[in-house]
Each structure stands twice: as structure tokens, then as C-alpha cells.
């Protein structure tokens, strides 16, 4: 299968993990930001995680340099535009990009300016390319509950204008869901959809709690439901969609290698899975590459791919008009 030519949908992609190396260098020079090198190969090495990462925490260290150059409206607009541009060029027809606004306040921007800048970049790409997008606001689990309320409150004015959902991300500790029940409850009252990073680092029970306590409609990763029968059952029964990211999961040691990844077993057992990059730069990947990995390791058929694509259409947080359009791309095949 030629995955470059096939239509694709991506539901789990982090803005700050998907910068072009040359853009990092260019912004650093323009804005007088100190970075370790101005050599593209060296920066590439600094911001790309090896397949032999020790853990999720080591993987997350690769976001430090990108965040240095994501502190102005111009840079946020540019980085957002370029991510959607890159995705459009590999036939991604719809993409949900997530980012944590509070990581971009270091040089005085407020949350509203940050969100608007990312939306502006996305809309510029939508006008230029055959791609549609939406934005997911991430709250950092390493920050306070008050900070999550802050993101929920200040992002609410952008609902219906490109912001669609709320997310919890960063290092995963057991039982994190309980701490964030109230801000996520408020988010749902405002009209945010809910996707939660859970079950990425050996704690399947976190997936169960993300669904039961936070009302998660989708789960970022969810690999470790394989070790938690109750979480597995509820994901399958309630058809909670898993946003799976094969390369990232090998890097963070959620799985030892691609062949051990549970994505195909889950798919065949009636769990709704989707294929995603997580972070295009940090994982040195794109959607065609992730699809090729799944094809190579599990010999998926075109019917399998079509089902995964349609799972993504149903699970995306887009409006009905966009979903109808996305289905048509696959039916032309």
C-alpha cells in the first residue's frame, strides 16, 4: 500500500514536538534566543529521541529546545502553519494538534494570545492546502489544578472557533485523574470534548479512571490496558477510541519493539484504534511512516486501513460537515 497517496487523519500530534530544525535556528537568530547550536544536524540530534530511550521522562527532555523558540506570537503562528503544511503535503486531510498554552508564557504572552496565534497559523494552512484542523488544549499534569482551571477558563472563548477539546499530558503517575476531576468537569460543562493521555507508562488503571472519573471519550496511547482487564473491558465495551503512536511507544519503552505493539491485536479484538505520530520531530516520523510500520509489522489489509481511517473520522472532534467530507476521501479509493 502506498501510504503517501492514501488519505490520512491524525488525532494525536503535539505542536512542540513537531518543529522543523531550520525553523528553530531561524527563530533563535531572529529573537536572540540562546540555543546549543546553530547547526541543523546538531539541533536535529538535540531534539530527536533515540529508539533506545530509557523512559517517557527521557523522551520528554527533547521538548526543552523547541519551547525556547515558541514564546512569541509570530513564532507560534509560523510553527503551527508549518506543521499543518507538512501534514498536508503527505495527504493528511484532517489533523488535531495539541499544545499546552502555559508553556508559552515565558516572554509575557497571555493564554489568549497564545491560543489565537496557533489558530491563526492553522487557518492560514487551511486556506492554502487541502487540510482541515482543530486544536486541543493540554493541561500539564506536573502543574497545579489551578493551572488546569486557568487553561479551561481562558480557552473557552475559542470553542467553536478552532478549539475543540481538553487534554491532560506530561509525566504519568498512578492515580492522577482524581486530582483533575473538577477542571475537566468544568471543561465539559463549557463544551470541550475530552481526550486524556493515560496508560502510556505501565499503568492500565489510569485508563479506567480517565474514563470513569474524567469522562474521557478518547485515550492518548492506552497501551497498558493490555495489563488491566477492567480497563480493557471498558474501552472495548464503551468503544473509547485509542490514539496510538507506534514509534513514540517504542521510544518511551511502552513496548520493547514494533512487533510487540498491541495496536493490531486491539484492532482485531474490536477496540477502536487510530494511528498517529505523537511528535513528528522528537520521533523523527510522519503519518506515512507510522502507517508503513503497522503495515510491515502486521501485514494489515486495505480493509483494515479503511476501518482505522473511518474510526478516526468517527472519533475526531470535527463538525458533521467535516466528517462527511472526510468519509468521501476514503470512498473514492
Automatic annotation (TrEMBL):
Q: Which cofactor does it need?
A: Zn(2+)
Instruction: Note the superkingdom of the native organism.
Output: Bacteria
Pinpoint the Adenosine deaminase domain residues.
7-327
The keyword Metal-binding belongs to this UniProt entry's keyword annotation: yes
CDD domains reported for this sequence: ADA
EC identifiers of the protein:
3.5.4.4
Q: Which residues bind substrate?
A: 14, 16
Catalyses: 2'-deoxyadenosine + H2O + H(+) = 2'-deoxyinosine + NH4(+); adenosine + H2O + H(+) = inosine + NH4(+)
Q: Which Gene3D superfamilies match?
A: Metal-dependent hydrolases (3.20.20.140)
This protein's record includes keyword Membrane: no
State how the cofactor is bound: Binds 1 zinc ion per subunit.
Q: Which GO terms describe its molecular function?
A: hydrolase activity
Could you say which residues are annotated as the site Important for catalytic activity? Answer: 221
Q: Which UniProt keywords apply?
A: Hydrolase, Metal-binding, Nucleotide metabolism, Zinc
What family, per the record? Belongs to the metallo-dependent hydrolases superfamily. Adenosine and AMP deaminases family. Adenosine deaminase subfamily.
What this chain does, per the entry, is described as: Catalyzes the hydrolytic deamination of adenosine and 2-deoxyadenosine.
NCBIfam families given in the database record: aden_deam
Quote the protein name from its UniProt record. Answer: Adenosine deaminase
User: Which species is listed as the source?
Assistant: Bacillus kandeliae
The gene it comes from is add
Amino acid at each position: 500500500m502506498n501510504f503517501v497517496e492514501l488519505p490520512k487523519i491524525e488525532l494525536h500530534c503535539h505542536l512542540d514536538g513537531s518543529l522543523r530544525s531550520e525553523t528553530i535556528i531561524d527563530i533563535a537568530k531572529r529573537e536572540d534566543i540562546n540555543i546549543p547550536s546553530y547547526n541543523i544536524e546538531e539541533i536535529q540530534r538535540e531534539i530527536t529521541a533515540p529508539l533506545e530511550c530509557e523512559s517517557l521522562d527521557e523522551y520528554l527532555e527533547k521538548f526543552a529546545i523547541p519551547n525556547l523558540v515558541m514564546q512569541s506570537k509570530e513564532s507560534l503562528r509560523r510553527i503551527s502553519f508549518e506543521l499543518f503544511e507538512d501534514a498536508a503535503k503527505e495527504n493528511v486531510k484532517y489533523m488535531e494538534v495539541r499544545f499546552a498554552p502555559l508553556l508559552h508564557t515565558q516572554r509575557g504572552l497571555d493564554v489568549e494570545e497564545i491560543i489565537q496565534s496557533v489558530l491563526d497559523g492553522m487557518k492560514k494552512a487551511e486556506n492554502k492546502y487541502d487540510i482541515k484542523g482543530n486544536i486541543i488544549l493540554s493541561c500539564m499534569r506536573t502543574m497545579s489544578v489551578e493551572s488546569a482551571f486557568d487553561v479551561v477558563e481562558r480557552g473557552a472563548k475559542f470553542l467553536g472557533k478552532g478549539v475543540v477539546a481538553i487534554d491532560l499530558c506530561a509525566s504519568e503517575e498512578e492515580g492522577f485523574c482524581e486530582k483533575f476531576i473538577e477542571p475537566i468537569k468544568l471543561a465539559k460543562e463549557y463544551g470541550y470534548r475530552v481526550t486524556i493521555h493515560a496508560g502510556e507508562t505501565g499503568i492500565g488503571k489510569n485508563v479506567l479512571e480517565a474514563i470513569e472519573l474524567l469522562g474521557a471519550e478518547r485515550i492518548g496511547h492506552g497501551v497498558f490496558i493490555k495489563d488491566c482487564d477492567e480497563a480493557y473491558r471498558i474501552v472495548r465495551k464503551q468503544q473509547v477510541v485509542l490514539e496510538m503512536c507506534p514509534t513514540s511507544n517504542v521510544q518511551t519503552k511502552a513496548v520493547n519493539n514494533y512487533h510487540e505493539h498491541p495496536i493490531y491485536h486491539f484492532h482485531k479484538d474490536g477496540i477502536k484504534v487510530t494511528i498517529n505520530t505523537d511528535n513528528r520531530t522528537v520521533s523523527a516520523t510522519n503519518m506515512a511512516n507510522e502507517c508503513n510500520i503497522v503495515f510491515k509489522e502486521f501485514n494489515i489489509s486495505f480493509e483494515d486501513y479503511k476501518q482505522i481511517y473511518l474510526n478516526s473520522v468517527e472519533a475526531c472532534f470535527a463538525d458533521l460537515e467535516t466528517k462527511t467530507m472526510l468519509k468521501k476521501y476514503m470512498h473514492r479509493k
